[in-house]
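Z., the sequence and structure:
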Amino acid sequence: QVQLVESGGGLVQAGGSLRLSCAASGSRFSILHMNWYRQAPNKERELVATITHGGITNYADSVKGRFTISRDNAKNTVYLQMNSLKPEDTAVYYCNTHFIIDYWGQGTQVTVST
């Protein structure tokens, strides 16, 4: 069983930055691959960034060079640093992992104004 709790969303102007956090429960965090997804209104949920248990990262083309995913295994936390934000980054951002089944957080709203 894994519980995920996101925080750090908010309202920011275009060009600004936010850092999202996702705190995970349980003792297996260090072996889990962790993902950030987002879902904008009337759009499908999309994968934004991934970090493996070994720290290898991967990003959607739309966020490469602007977003950075990282993890702190001592704190059971994964982060998403978002810089140079654009209005099209507006979405609910979800933390996700898979251990036998998929686990999702409740989501955190990010709104980027023009």
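Residues 12 and 112 are 5 Å apart (CA to CA). The longest strand covers residues 91-99.

Let me know what you think.
H.
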